[in-house]
Amino acid sequence: MEYDIVVVGGGPAGLSAAYSASKMGAKTIVLEKDDGIGQFVRTSGVTWIEDMKRLGIPGKYYNPIKNYRIVCPTNEVTIKGNSAKSCVLDVRTSYQYLASLAAASGSEIMVKSQVRDVIMNPSGRVSGVKVMTPRGEFEFFSKLVIDASGFSSTVARRAGLVTEWKRYGIGAEYECFCEGLDPQTWVLMVGSEYSTAGYSWLFPVSEDRVRIGVGIGRPESRSDPLKILDELIRKRPRPLDELSKIQPLELHYGIIPNEGCIRTTVHDGLILVGDCAGQSNPLILEGIRFAIDFGRLAGEIAAKSLSSGATKESLKSYENIWRNEIESRIGSALKVQSRWLALSNEQWEKEIDILKNISEDEFLDFIKADFTTSKMLKLSIHHPQVLARRLFDLVLRR
After folding, report:
1. pTM, to two decimals
2. Which three-class secondary structure state does DSSP give residue 269?
3. What kind and span of H or E run contains 394?
4. Interval 134-170: pLDDT, tens
5. Ramachandran bin of 150, using left for φ above 0, alpha for ψ from -120 to 50, beta for the remaining angles
6. Contact indicator for 268, 311 with CB cutoff of 8 Å
7. What are the two backbone dihedrals, phi and then psi, of residue 2, each rounded to the nearest 5 degrees?
């Protein structure tokens, strides 16, 4: 089978890449290893309303959030907003919406199609993939492959272009029926009671459904996040004790890279996008907005590059654009995250005291890793406490 572009991975990055490539007239196919788009939820779904509106994601696919609660064993703060600025996606339906956009633009989508190997030409260039499908094994030849396979980096790794991730976050969460829930407030829980190296969360999906999860940083901890999660639900520490009923309905499990941006995301005949490119915010391990944004960019530039042979040079503008937008922010966020992982319960208590004095916009700029020089200077000037000074040092002093 021959295509202009083969996209490996039917998540938000791959579907968005296929959508824009097909709109540009490229013959495109998406290969998804699972039985259906969004069949297995691998993300908590937290993102930002401003980005979803800009990217054209309808409001019916997310639950709006306007309050942000941070809890440690001995302290807490709730930062209240006047309007909703964050949101929690209905991951399955939003991914299927992205699939519908790709299909409507002309892309083919094949589910239950697992890449088994990469086809290389004599010069060592990726020229297609070997895939096991429900109809048997097939070879898909293409002028360009887009690797949007997430943590596994299936194509790039099999082509010998990347190695396995050494630092990553691993998370387990239950989506639960719940009573006594505030659907407009998400909660982060920090400290050793909630995670051995990371945090736990309550992310409302609707008035009576919530995602309760635990994230663990590797290699800082080898703990099993599911065991910690089960123990949290059994013991009901604050704020879980405020919920009158918690009934798990689904189990979600996910892994996200946590090393920052990879060295290069373009090669002759190959683009990497989404998690396999390291395009995620390390502070709360969210990257759906980047996946959609840079997936569309990758598809557009990939389609334009076909007339030039899809060479690395013809793909370079993709890498330049996305790095200019987020690479320095991700690098700064990694420094902050590294400090967070080392905090004791007593230190978290002091950090939360300082958070009580910052505004909603200052908190959101920080948690979104929007570390512009002007914003960090304002934070340091307005809040000359130890936390603000440390953040200034971490983020702006290279």
Report:
1. 0.93
2. coil
3. helix 386-396
4. 999 999 999 999 999 999 999 999 999 999 999 999 9
5. left
6. yes
7. -125, 135
